[in-house]
Amino acid sequence: MRLLIQRVSAASVTIDGRVKSSISQGLLLLVGFEETDEKEDIDFMCKKTIYLRIFDDENGVMNRSVLDIGGEILVVSQFTLFASTKKGNRPSYIRAAKPDISIPLYEQFCATLSEMLGKPVQTGEFGADMQVGLINDGPVTIWIDSKIKE
Fold it and tell me: What InterPro entries does the database record attribute to this sequence (predicted)?
């Protein structure tokens, strides 16, 4: 499982010209799954996301989590996080989980994240052609892979 976490002032997902979801201060998460992902990966990534201290405290030091600031979360499925560019110029997505595996993982990830956050997370629409808008605050962008826990 891979996450690209972006600290945002605002973010939104638009599908077919209509805004499906939007948030103010918080996190935009782009999430991708592979065939071997399971509940343990989801639990690890949710906990890491909720408690990741990347928001400024009163001294301007990144010392607060999204939970600490009462922030919001927008989750967007992103199978291209597993792109392989080893050969040629056309990425291969062979490591990305197929929809029959990734949709339940995505739904479980969003549900677990909502439970830990104590409020609903906003989402994109799995498999849809989405336009994602964001104001990256900082900018702060962090990449995490559940199989690399260093």
Answer: Daa-tRNA_deacyls_DTD, DTD-like_sf
- Cβ pair 37, 46 in contact under 8 A: no
Which parts of the chain fold into alpha helices (H)?
39-51, 66-69, 99-117
Q: Is there a catalytic annotation at residue 49? A: no
Domain ranges in the chain? 2-145
Q: Which residues lie below 8 Å from residue 76, measured CB to CB, with a gap of 6+? A: 13, 28, 29, 30, 31, 123, 124, 130, 132
131 is catalytic: no
User: Is residue 49 classed as helix, strand or coil in its secondary structure?
Assistant: helix
Q: Which fold has domain 2-145?
A: D-tyrosyl-trna(Tyr) Deacylase; Chain: A; (3.50.80)
- Choosing from 6, 49, 55, 78, the catalytic residue is 78
pLDDT digits (tens, 9 = 90+) for 18-54: 999 999 999 999 999 999 999 999 999 999 999 999 9
